[in-house]
Structures are given as structure tokens and as C-alpha cells.
Amino acid sequence: MTQRARAFAFLALANLLWAGNWVIGRALRDAFDPVSLNFWRWVIAVAVLAPFALPGLAAKRGVIRRHAAILALLAVLSVSIFQSLVYLGLQSTTAVNAVLINCAGPLFILLFAWLIDGERASLRQLAGFLVSVAGILVILSRGEPARLAQLEFHSGDAWIVLAIAIWGAYSVLLKRRPPELGGLHFLFVISAAGVLFLAPVFAFQVVQAPPRLPTLPEALAVLYVGLAASVAAYLFWNRGTAIVGANAAGFTLYLLPIFGALLAIAFLDETFGAFHAVGTATIVAGVVLATRK
């Protein structure tokens, strides 16, 4: 296998592991509340990353102090809020719906690039944005226009849309991260900070409703989202991106909804309807229109 082929295998594997996180989030909806599942996910990730990140982190203390505000904001958006909203949405919508709505991520990046950085969108980008919004509406309405008129959406779908919007804001702000923090140190810092921000909410929920001990399959599923989806996938993604470049790697993100839909159909007995195909094709068409050179 050539180095380039191996790189795309790494990128595909990263998307497969991330897709598994969405399916497991749906499968564990009755076992964990969204905040608890997210909290334990990142506690596991921090524990695994600590031995590798801590030895060199002492030399980065000055960098972390100088950039504490942006690091805290990135941690809140990505670790604390984004994934909690995803798990919240998966409480009441299907994994198939959720991963297909996720296709609209690049459009929200364009939107927040305009809102945050003042990057003006071209007419083509605006047209692509509107086309993708139409695709999202097809999925939200389950292909029934009457639902659009009556605003009858599943609340879970709305949470997923909000989560993808949060991710768009995070992606735009990511360019402000301190370049002195390498990938491993940056991931550890925002993971640890995200856990700290989640801890008070988690503690409050534990006091209000003491959790039960998870079963062995449930505990293994949480280990998966902590180890595979949070650490291994990131490492595979970084390795593949370093070889083929960010632009080529970005196109592989469309494997995530494909993997996610297949896994949800195989393990959760979910269905893939005609409206899913129409909505996804419309979203992708809008993204291509808005982002192609």
C-alpha cells in the first residue's frame, strides 16, 4: 500500500470511528443523560492523553496563560457544548437523521466566517447556502411540506442543527488557537478544560438524580467514545491530513454520514427513506456549489 493510500485509509478509519460515536450516542439514550455521557467520554480521553501530553506541557504554561481566553472558548464550544447537544439531539431523533444533517457543517462555517471575521460571501456561496438549507428542511420535515408550514419538527433535529452551528463557530475560531501548542497538547488542554466546565453541571445532575451503575455493554460503549472516537480518531485524522493535506482530507468527511447511516441501519434497525436521499443530495449539492473553487 502506498503512503497516499495508507493516508486515505487513516482518514476513512477516523470517519468510521466518529460515525460510531453518533450511533452509540443514540443507543445509550436511555442509559445516560447527554451531559453524563459527554463528561465520562472526555474524562476517559483526558486520562489516556495525560501521560503523553503532561511531560511537555510545563514548558507551555506561558502560552496557555496568554491564550487562556480563546482556549477556554474553544473548549466550551467543542468539548462542552457541541457534543452535549449532539447527545441531547440523539435522545429524540434517529442517528440516520443526525449524521445526514451533519453534512451541512461547511455551510455553517461559511456563515460564521462572515459573522465573526467579516468574510463576505459571494453570490455563489449564498446560493449554495440556500440550497443546503432546503436540503436540511427536507430532512427536518421528513419530506412532508405540510410540516414546514406548521413548523412540526422533531426537537432532536433542532438540537442537531444547533450543534452543527456551534461546530461551525468553533471551526472559524480555531485559526485563533496559539500555534505554539502542538496537536496533542492542544487536544489535551481543551479536553481537560471542557471536562472542568462540564463538571458542575454533571455534579448537579448526580445530586438531583443519582445514576445507576452501567451494565458491561454500556461501560464498553462509553470506553469506545472516550478512546476510539475522542483519541484514536483524532490521531488517525492528523496522520492522514499531514500526508494528503487539509483540502483532500476535508472531502473524506462525507464518509461520516455514509458510515453513520449504515451503522444505524445495521445495529439500531433504523431506516433510510427517500426523503433522506433527497435531503442529503440537496445539502451536498449546496456545499459543493458554495465551496468549490
Give an account of the 3D structure.
The protein is mainly alpha-helical. The chain has one domain. The chain is built from 14 helices and no strands. α1 packs antiparallel against α11, α2 packs antiparallel against α10 and α7 packs antiparallel against α14. 45% of the residues are buried.
SSE inventory with pairings:
Blueprint: H1 3-27, H2 34-57, H3 61-66, H4 68-89, H5 95-101, H6 105-117, H7 123-140, H8 145-150, H9 155-173, H10 183-208, H11 216-244, H12 246-251, H13 255-267, H14 274-291
Helix pairs in contact: 1-5, 1-11, 1-13, 2-4, 2-10, 2-11, 4-9, 4-10, 5-13, 5-14, 6-7, 6-9, 7-14
What is the total number of structural domains? 1
Which overall shape is indicated by the principal axes computed on the Cα atoms? Answer: globular
Q: How far apart are the first and last residues' alpha carbons, in Å? A: 31 Å
Query: Would you report the number of β strands?
Result: 0
Query: Tell me about the biggest sheet?
Result: none
Mean of residue pLDDT?
84
Percent range for β-strand residues = under 5%
Q: What portion of residues is helical?
A: over 70%
Order of helices and strands: HHHHHHHHHHHHHH
Label the structural class: mainly alpha
**Low-confidence parts:** none
Q: Over the alpha carbons, how many angstroms does the gyration radius reach?
A: 19 Å
Count of DSSP H/I helices: 14
